[in-house]
Amino acid sequence: MKKHILFLGILVGLLACNPSETDWDVEALAPIMHSRMTLQNLVGDSSVAVDPDGQLVLEIQGNALPINLDTLSAFRTLAVNDTFYWDYPAITIYPGIDMQLPPIYMNFMVPNAEMVEALMEGGRIDVAVSSSIPRKMNFKYSIPMARLNGQAIGFSGSLAAWVPGQNPVALSRSFDLAGHRLDLRGLDLKGSNRLEILVLPSIAAGEAPLNVQQGQALFTIATQFKDMDPLWLRGAFLPQELSIPASLTRIPELSKLSADAVQFEQARVVLRLENTLGAELKVRPRRFWAERSESGLQVDLQHDIINKNLWIDRAVWTGGGAAPTPKTYTYEINNQNSNILDFLSALPDEIGVEVDVSINPLGNTAGFMDFIYPDALPKFSIDARLPMKFSAQNLAFTDTVAWTLKESDYKALNNATLWLKGETLFPFETRLLIELLDANRQVLDTLIQNLIVPAGQPNPNTGIVEQAVAFNQSIEVSEAKLGVLKQTAFVKLKAFLNTPPGTNLVSMKSHYYMDFRLVARAGVNIGFNR
Amino acid sequence: MNPIPFLFPLFGWFGNQARPDFFHDRYSSQGQISLHSEGNFESSHLNGWFVSQALIGKSFSQADMLSVQADQQGYASGRWETAFRYWGLDSAFGGGQWRHSLGFSNSWIGYASYDADLFGLISRGNAPYAGQTLDLNAGSGFLTNYQTIDFSLARAFSRTNSTWFLSFGLGFVNGSFFRDAQMQGGSFFTHPEGDELRLGMDRVQLRASDPSGSAFLYPAGLGFSFRGSLEYQHKNGHVVSFSVQDAGLMFWNRQAQAIELDSELVWSGFAVPNIAEVGETLFQEQLDSIGSNLIVSDVRRSFESVLPVGIRLGYGRRLFQNKALLQAQVHYAPHLMPIPEVELAFYYLGKGRLNAGISASGGGVCLWKVGLNVGVDAGRGWAFQFFTRNAESIWPNAAGRGLSAGFQVSKRILIPKL
User: How far is A446 from chain B (nearest CA, A)?
Assistant: First the structure.
């Protein structure tokens, strides 16, 4: 028996037997990637313009400071729950007789403004009526000053008799406010920031008379204004100082650049103040500064407008649904009237603004014809135009990308030699550095250290590089370096640009480029696996 | 005539298939069970040392690979078979003259015919060929695994001066794995400095069985096989035999995949439009694009393949009062070798229970080879045989071109006649 078991064991073992996997080393030679690098794609195509003479110009646009008014946020939502009690001595109410209830006031808590009219683009009113009267009741509900084509919001309805001991019987309705015009003066046409609701209940015909005691709860009317979205609001802004916190605006075009020293030839920045508000503004720029967020370096702008009161007239509005025509004031800042070159030489990735703004500093001079268009709020914007003619020391382009290769993708590599080769027209020397970072972005090692791509040589007469310079550099990637790659989570690419020392400013032309190609010769281990 | 009992390993190559142990007439009242296993790999230029190291999972250096390069069209074939077989007497056909057999076998079989440069490219990489355009000849290859359950009948027809032996059987085949590649031709160019690669492919067809599984007994396809043999033995010692093995078809199921490639590809690296915006998807999109440009068609569909049929024609002469046999045979398996294989063998029954044999053959996949076998009758019905068809590989650095080893264990058993 044991022999037969042994026999079967041998059989099963042989059936399941497979040869071991084997592997071998080969020498591979292949191109990895190729690209053309231009200044346009380093800082973003949309940010670079070309002058007629081929000069590249960096154009930066940004909203430096949008102004938000709390007038609007206060108008967005409003809810009132009103419960009616019988405040009079006991009485008998007969069917078919309307009960004269006082109006319900909906007061919008709009600070520093008395709004008298609004045209709604969106919004909703939810109404819920509940009754504690043990009789069938008829209701009429209306908001007479909220109208669409002359028709006020309102409804009529009936409520079944309430059964004592049970929940009050309820009735609900919703209204879309789009297109409605709200007269916020109230029924007496003398107020502001308010609407009134009228409710007219009566006991339905055929019901028994009702004896009502003083203090008895009769109805609850819940009204909610939701998602209020006015196309415009009209009224009067009270004189007020807006509290505007210091604002930092990012400039992504420059966020990947840094430099030990960079000097531009000229720059032009236009500060634009755009008032879309139906009110006068007094603006006092207290501080404009350029900031490198990485180093914390700040350079304050020095210009006449700093700490100066700028009076901005109100926008022009023809009423109805038409948007107002803003009043725009522009202030040019250039290297003649400011320190803008120092300001930009900091290569700011953020621009900070501190500004005081007053609305209607002279009071209500427009007779409740101030207005606000929520879709077009006042703003300060900056347009910068920076011709790319400069000298630079270690002008660095830095980018960090996630290293997405898995270990299995390159575990077969034993060693490698990379060649970076191509040609360049850039009139500056480029030094390349690639760092390998761990998951905490700490530097583990360098993959490429100080690989130099030479500068293109300008024609002495024109100062323009016309002939490309070829380069071909090799990089040894050892087995140890490949081991570091296994721990790499990010790769940081740094390109340092240095204009030739002692020369004039270098002008960047639109035809400048660097073509490069990465080729690898690597020992690769190939496995055989069925 | 008293047949010599050790002739069984003579036909070790197909002994696990349909052939009964005709020569054990003295045990005619007994059946037999046997376990047979053999691994074999042959190549036109890979030597036995290399193959043995590959089988145990060695990592080869570039120098190792340089030593096994082909200088002309290369061929390689491999086979790993394990079979269990039962033979019994059968009175249902001819009053006990027939024997019946039930067998189960598992086979891994592969074959490749390839251009020498293609082998160099795969085994050494493209760097040694920088600056060259390699013109690749047509090539093909397959690797398959299947299991067979077969039922066979065999009978001896005795005449005055001779005996005819006839056997035939049908098998049901389960296909677990199949990969097949056919290439009409192509070219490969590596720029001297690696700036560019150019791959030209002339109608490359790839076929694969259901890729979701390949385990033992995985049902990726079904088929049938036929085997048969006819042998004539004259009492003066002449033996003539003819046999067919593994004639059949496999039908791979609908999950199988057939891909056709026909294109010229120029690769100059990933094109990165903007070095400041390198993303993973950029690379993946380009790889996908390359794949879609190469593939002419990519469909999931059933297809059929032929089993690696083999035919043998042999002549033998008994010597020394039937204690020895000298035999010559021609073997041809068109799907496993470029040309037929010719073999000359001598087998001898020694004193006691030992037997031994030696063979020399040429043609087939490799140029020449030497086979050896030894066996022992252990008594009480047990017999053991050990053999190799590539004894030349025993010596290191020999010019051998293959590696093989096999054994068979058999046990005669008493069975009731049907």
Answer: 19
- Across the interface, whether the CB atoms of B409 and A10 are under 8 A apart is answered yes
Helix (H, G, I), strand (E, B) or coil at A366: coil
Integer CA distances (angstroms), A377 to A374, A396, B377, in order: 6, 38, 105
With bands split at pLDDT 50, 70 and 90, how would you rate the model's confidence at B25?
very low
Q: What is the largest CA-CA distance in chain B?
A: 94
d(CA B51, CA B42) in angstroms, rounded, equals 8
Segment holding B158, helix H or strand E: strand B139-158
Contact B125 A401 (CB under 8 A): no
Q: Which residues of A429-457 are buried (b: 16+ CB within 10 A; e: fewer)?
A: bbbbbbbbbeeeeeeebebbeebebebbe
- The minimum CA-CA distance between B69 and chain A, rounded to whole Å, is 13
Helix (H, G, I), strand (E, B), or coil: what is residue B272? strand
Mutation test of the interface with chain A: which of B195, B198, B199, B285, choosing the one with the most A Cβ atoms within 10 A? B195
Return the residue in A8, A27, A255 with the most chain B beta carbons within 10 A, the one to mutate for interface testing: A27
Residue type, A439: A
- Distances in whole angstroms, Cα of residue A131 to Cα of each of A167, A170, A222, A333, B40: 9, 6, 12, 68, 96
| Model pLDDT, residue A10 | 47
Distance from C-alpha of B81 to C-alpha of B106, rounded to nearest angstrom: 6
Nearest to A24 among B59, B195, B277 (CB): B59
CB contact under 8 A, A397 and B276: yes
- C-alpha to C-alpha distance for B349 and A141, rounded to whole angstroms: 119
pTM for this predicted structure: 0.65
Q: What is the mean pLDDT of residues A215-239?
A: 87
**Eight-state DSSP code of residue A98:** B
3-class DSSP string for B9-23: HHHHHHHCCCCCCCC
Q: How many Å apart are CA B136 and CA B126, to the nearest integer? A: 13
Q: Measure the CA dihedral A203/A207/A212/A218, to 10°.
A: -50
Q: How far is A396 from chain B (nearest CA, A)?
A: 13
Q: Are strands A395-402 and A91-93 parallel, antiparallel or unpaired?
A: unpaired
With an 8 Å Cβ cutoff, are B193 and A519 in contact? Answer: yes
User: Residue B167 carries which side chain, given as an amino acid letter?
Assistant: S
**Per-residue pLDDT at A327:** 93
| Distance, CA of B175 to CA of B220 (rounded, Å) | 6
Q: pLDDT of A317-346, one tens digit each?
A: 887 777 889 999 999 999 899 998 888 888
As a 3-state breakdown, chain B gives helix, strand, coil percent values, each rounded to 5, of 15, 55, 30
Separation CA A312–CA B315 (nearest Å): 116
CA distance A326 to A314: 7
Distance from CA of B337 to the nearest CA of A (A): 22
The C-alpha angle with vertex B159 and arms to B157 and B163, in degrees rounded to 5, equals 55
A358-415, pLDDT tens digit by residue?
A: 989 988 888 889 998 888 888 888 888 888 888 888 888 777 777 766 666 666 777 8
- Give the one of B80, B271, B277 whose C-beta lies nearest to A34's C-beta: B271
Beta bridge partners of A317: none
